[in-house]
Here is the input.
Amino acid sequence: MHTAGYQALDLDFGYAAVESQDLRATVTSFIELGFRGFAVSMPYKLEITKYLDEVSPDVAAIGACNTVVNKDGRRTGYNTDWRGAMDALRERGVNQPGRAIVLGAGGASRALVFGLKNAGWHVEIAARNLQSAGVLSADFELAPPHDLQTPFFPGFDLVVNTTPVATLSDRLLDLDRFPDAKVVFDVVFNPVHTPLCAEADRRGLISVPGWLMLLHQAVHQFTLYTEVDAPISAMREALLQALPKA
Here is the structure.
């Protein structure tokens, strides 16, 4: 996506994947080499904040950083995940807040909770790990979390799957458990059309695929890195070409 964007605008930027076993040494190397910035994937989205000079207010609230910009040697951390999620909802025509239930209590869940609350949604959590879910709920002043094994979750307009579960054979993703759902958001982005989104479409619900969140968060990253507007069409095309369809 990023490379396609640079090429579309004829920008002298490059984007490379780097695997790290030593985050501190990697960050130090990036700064010494003059990297403009870098993305951060799991499991380093929390640890990275220890090596930054400053974090944006959303990173402070979410507790996770996925984007770092190096400007004159000063490292600033941002979180574009929640922005990408909200843009994905808007692109699918979901503009009015309601009641949302977020499945899972990991880093993606924290970003979604932050974004949804910021947009005026009533948010609740359901997770298998109630201890982690309890911490998340307390951090964002939510109601006590639900046990994910609860048979039914009525009264929720939006269902968000932030777990790595990607198959409907797991009862977790049985949409019969969410009888009032109007919108289903699956943060899983591979394949393009996940089984959960396909089932939501079959039922006549609005589906929000994870690749759309991935695209929009990268658009925000692009602008942070380059300080120019991202060519979203070129980035969208590159992403959809790279991901398997099913």
Remarks:
- Residues 210-226 form the longest helix (17 residues).
